[in-house]
Amino acid sequence: MGHKRVTELSELNVGELKGHEATNSFRRLLSSAFCSPSGRDGPFLWLGNFEAERHWDDPAALHLPSIPMTADATIVNRLEEMTLLLAGAPDHVILREQPDPGFMAYLAQLGFVLPSVIGIGSEDRILPVSELILKTDSFIECLRELARLHSALCLLPFGKTRLEEAIGERTGVPVAGPSAQLLETVNSKLYSRRVTEELGLRTVPGASCATFEALELAAAEMSVYFPDRLVLKEAMGVSGKGLLMIESPERLERALTMLRRKVKPGAPCRFVLEKWIDKVTDINYQILVNADGSVRLLCIKEAVTRNGVHMGHYSPPQLTGPQRHDYEIAAEAVGKRLFDDGFVGIAGIDSIIDQAGQVYPVLEINARFNMSTYQQALDRMVPPESTTVVKHYPLAISGFVPFSGLRSVLEPILFGLGGRREGVGIMCFGSVNCNLPGAKGAAKGRLYVFLTARERDAIEQLDTDVQARLAQCEGVIAVK
Predict the structure, then answer these.
(1) What span, in angstroms and rounded, lies between the C-alpha atoms of 382 and 431?
(2) What domains are defined for the chain?
(3) Is 16 exposed, middle or buried (0-12, 13-18, 19+ CB in 10 A)?
(4) Structural element, H or E, at residue 349
(5) Mean of the pLDDT values across residues 223-233?
(6) How much is the pLDDT for 16?
(7) How many whole angstroms separate alpha carbon 63 and alpha carbon 128?
(8) pLDDT bucket at 384, cuts 50 / 70 / 90
(9) Residue 447: pLDDT above 60?
């Protein structure tokens, strides 16, 4: 199957909306991070490998029990479409399949100058995109040809692993950012705890454990915190996975016994055991570490989580002046430390504010893009006084959901149409129907959107309205 390339470069008159200006502004920021003043500044080859973190972890490492979710993996793979929000002319975007033409037309109406889209052309919906590229020789040759046409081409992945480095080696396309080995280190919760402590930032009571013996010792020492809860985290756990809440000494001993049975000689054992902090708010903030060592605080957002799983972001967050100052201090300190360790690029940092209003500024450092990254273009499109939340709606579908049908039911509240500055905007459509092929019964899908309104209270009403409208859409059984 050929690798179809589609280019959409026309600008439409959309009044005050300037999606293309937002995209260009963000591209300039990325160039300042990855390129020296005299270095290459050519087109980016964007790769939305949202599953990158699974490749930083060692499969031989000791892990907590988990349940594989094939349907969720398929959805995560299709989040690659969000790259269209950040890329622009003269960039190229790699997608496993071509996006819906209606969705592309909608983005163009918002003012985005769409990049060239290169589809891999594979029917494999499960395999992570970088593995899919490496096993598709014809696509590797396609990228080689692209590299010959653009000498300054640079691969820009969601997260850089050894797989993207292998793609770079086989295609001759340089990969932006530091080495995958460094990023693996930075993404470990062991690194986050060590850096937080060394910088003198407020740190959650706990211990980093690089061996099972260290975990047993930490468990004995941390038992003094009961009857408060503890939480055991895998060093490379993500999105609520690799995490175990522990309410009692007996529960802690059962967890240790379970892990003790799985310990193998020479296998990595990396965990963090911490006191559970009763929080008021989850906060994610994003920094940009430039090639010259300067650090920029890109955004601070209030994370929306459910059972430890990220569901979206509110912007702006509700912070006091001292809390905002704490984040500014932490962003600069962590950014400088990352640069000293060899890191440049974007890092997202998860944090919490406790019941007393104290900021714990670093729970973990994610040396990759995150959902806040894809909100960057949106933040520059909505009125500055607005409240915006990025979220997704889990769907149960019985048949194909056409974009035209989705657009029709949302039309009266769709952001950007007729100069509308409030409402709902669609960020990713490919994740809606991705589990439909071969499904027996209802298939799982997700619609990723942003909601924006002048007042936060209006967001809740808008959310209710969106759910009701989605339930009326062709093919949708339920909105969960």
Answers:
(1) 24
(2) 5-183 (no CATH), 205-275 (3.30.1490.20), 279-367 (3.30.470.20), 383-479 (3.30.70)
(3) exposed
(4) strand 345-354
(5) 96
(6) 40
(7) 21
(8) confident
(9) yes
Contact of 92 with 32, CB cutoff 8 Å: no
CB < 8 Å & 24+ apart, contacts of 476-479:
476/395, 476/396, 476/397, 476/398, 476/401, 477/395, 477/396, 477/397, 477/398, 477/442, 478/395, 478/396, 478/442, 479/393, 479/394, 479/395
- Residue 10 reports pLDDT greater than 60: no
pLDDT of res. 378: 80
pTM: 0.90
Phi, psi of 262 (to 5 degrees): -100, -10
How would you classify residue 135: left for phi > 0, otherwise alpha for psi between -120 and 50, otherwise beta? alpha
State pLDDT tens for residues 186-202.
999 999 999 999 999 99
Q: Are 258 and 267 contacting, i.e. CB atoms less than 8 angstroms apart?
A: no
How far is CA 172 from its chain centroid?
Answer: 27
Q: What is the pLDDT of residues 448-477, one digit of tens each?
A: 999 999 988 899 999 999 999 999 999 999
Task: List the one residue out of 177, 164, 191, 258 whose CA is nearest residue 219.
Answer: 258
Spell out where 243-340 has E strands: 243-246, 271-275, 279-289, 295-306, 309-315
